Amino acid sequence: MFKSVITRSNLSIRRPSVLSDIESGARHIGNFAPRRLFSATSTTMSEPQKYEYVAVIPDKLDALERRVAVRATHLENVKRMFNAGIMVSGGVYLDGPVIEGSTPSFKGSVVNIIAESTEQVKEILSQDPYTLNDVWDWEKAQIFNFICAVRKGKP
Q: Which of 127, 125, 126, 91 is nearest to 108 (CA)?
């Protein structure tokens, strides 16, 4: 994993080149997950390049009843995508804090998806129960390329 390099008066440790690892088709770099977040051209790579995206999808104004009705089915779908490595994270954004005993003021969803393109993100999310049951307002949706600097598990 580390290469020893002997200098004039001491022994120093140097990490292998990240780019050379990727170009050689390495599946991982050190202790990092096997997810490429930038492009490297190589004839040895056979799988399509995938990137992380963040999708911000507001709910339609009249969607609360439909959202609540299909939420369990939506969460089953989210769990399948998460376990398959397609969804990295996801959740709801609200109009205010959650007050115990009341329905949260849902405004929309934010999801992080691993895909080849924004078109593939739209294709994946088009099969979600919130899309199929007219909860999400796709005319106002935004999808961005995303590179995560830090990530911690759910508290």
A: 91
Q: What is the dihedral of CA 44, 49, 51, 55, to 10 degrees?
A: -170
At residue 20, does pLDDT exceed 50? no
Three-class SS of residue 135? Answer: coil
Please state, rounded to an integer, the average pLDDT across all residues of the chain: 79
pLDDT band at 140 (very low <50, low <70, confident <90, very high): very high
Q: Report DSSP state, residue 59.
A: B
The answer to whether 130 touches 74, Cβ cutoff 8 Å, is: yes
Model confidence pLDDT, tens digit, residues 65-111: 999 999 999 999 999 999 999 999 999 999 999 999 988 899 999 99
Residue 20: Cβ-neighbour burial (10 angstroms; 0-12, 13-18, 19+): exposed
Strands (DSSP E) along 23-75, which ranges? 51-58
Residue 30 CB partners (closer than 8 Å, separation 6+): 1, 15
